[in-house]
Recover the amino acids of this structure.
């Protein structure tokens, strides 16, 4: 997306792109899109990703009602997240074929049906299949959001705004479901709310463009899958595995040190608020920063924050890095968009960002679990810090190449 993209080995530079920063190059290869189209795409994406913020609550309600055991929750959650990742990988190709408005609308309605089917489906395997299907639908819906945002003149800024706007309702829903919805409407009440949001998504699809926007690119518009592109995607995966690994053990770390319950609550809710703040800050000022160096510095800061969590011995020492963890979580995504578009002007590689992110987040807790010894989860954070440092090392290749 910028000048001679930060990669090894050195790849041909698009004519006239030397020294051009992100705003200028994207202006040539993307276009501002109508507000209605962008708003509709963000609405569809927000509904598609809503499950990520409320999954512990809605699945926890099923466990409390005896429909699944606590041990089975992990498989149920993983099935949906991995299916969502797969769907978001193939969704952009589906939407590029035309009829995006109809496809996204139909998928939204199907998601509503899948959420309401929670009343009719019983048994662990059937529930796994149902939530897997729901995850696939959610991922395919994300295809419309990804296509619209990534083809914008400023895809990094659009992604930052989307992440902030989609996280805020997740936080609100995560609060309202256990304190109001579940007590009044039962353990399936959360899925009814999700079905209602699916209907809202379907209505918003009326404002989508029917044909996905196209981006002019060199080389006939076909991506060349180079080693640097795979290295960048691996770095994104490692970074998100570190995030998922640390986040998954945040509550258990507080329990291990016998911190007050309020400490863990503030760490989670405050972390969500800081996520929104970090994403909005990058949306406003991120274009002024060099993306490769920002990824290196940001990843090292994340590694440091995770290490501080590992050695936290007091509630205050736990809360400060926990909030910092949230600040960096979403803030680096726009820089990842810039890196991938810099490596591939067709923006095909950038459309895989959501899928790679979700895979990393879902695998992270399993990798960090290798460091858990009985009730001591400290090792999980050291593994997460190591994964983050590995991501920083990969990003540094692009930063060094850019500085050369």
């Amino acid at each position: 997306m910028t000048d001679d993209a930060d990669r090894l080995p050195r790849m041909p530079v698009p004519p006239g792109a030397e020294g051009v920063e992100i705003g200028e190059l994207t202006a040539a290869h993307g276009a501002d899109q109508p507000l209605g189209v962008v708003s509709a795409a963000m609405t569809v994406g927000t509904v598609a990703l809503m499950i990520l913020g409320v999954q512990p609550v809605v699945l926890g309600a099923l466990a409390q009602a005896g429909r699944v055991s606590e041990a089975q929750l992990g498989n149920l959650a993983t099935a949906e997240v991995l299916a969502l990742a797969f769907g978001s990988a193939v969704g952009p190709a589906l939407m590029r074929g035309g009829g995006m408005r109809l496809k996204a609308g139909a998928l939204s309605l199907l998601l509503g049906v899948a959420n309401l089917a929670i009343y009719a489906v019983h048994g662990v395997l059937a529930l796994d299949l149902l939530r897997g299907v729901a995850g696939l639908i959610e991922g395919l819906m994300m295809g419309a959001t990804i296509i619209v945002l990534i083809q914008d003149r400023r895809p990094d800024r659009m992604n930052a705004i989307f992440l902030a706007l989609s996280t805020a309702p997740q936080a609100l829903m995560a609060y309202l479901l256990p304190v109001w919805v579940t007590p009044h409407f039962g353990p399936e009440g959360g899925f009814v709310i999700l079905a209602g949001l699916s209907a809202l998504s379907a209505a918003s699809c009326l404002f989508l463009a029917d044909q996905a926007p196209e981006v002019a690119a060199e080389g006939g518009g076909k991506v060349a899958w180079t080693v640097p592109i795979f290295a960048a995607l691996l770095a994104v995966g490692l970074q998100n595995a570190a995030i998922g690994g640390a986040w998954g053990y945040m509550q258990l770390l507080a329990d291990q040190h016998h911190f007050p319950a309020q400490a863990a609550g503030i760490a989670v809710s405050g972390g969500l608020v800081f996520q929104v703040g970090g994403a909005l800050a990058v949306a406003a000022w991120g274009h002024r920063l060099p993306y490769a160096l920002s990824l290196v510095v940001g990843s090292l800061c994340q590694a440091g924050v995770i290490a501080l969590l590992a050695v936290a011995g007091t509630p205050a020492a736990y809360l400060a890095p926990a909030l910092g963890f949230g600040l960096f979580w979403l803030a680096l995504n726009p820089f990842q968009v810039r890196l991938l578009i810099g490596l591939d002007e067709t923006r095909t590689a950038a459309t895989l960002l959501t899928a790679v992110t979700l895979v990393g987040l879902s695998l992270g807790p399993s990798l960090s679990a290798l460091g858990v010894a009985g009730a001591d989860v400290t090792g999980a954070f050291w593994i997460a810090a190591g994964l983050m440092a590995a991501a920083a090392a990969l990003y540094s290749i692009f930063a060094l190449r850019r500085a050369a």
About this structure: Residues 29-207 form a domain with the Growth Hormone; Chain: A; fold (CATH 1.20.1250.20). The two ends are 18 Å apart (CA to CA).
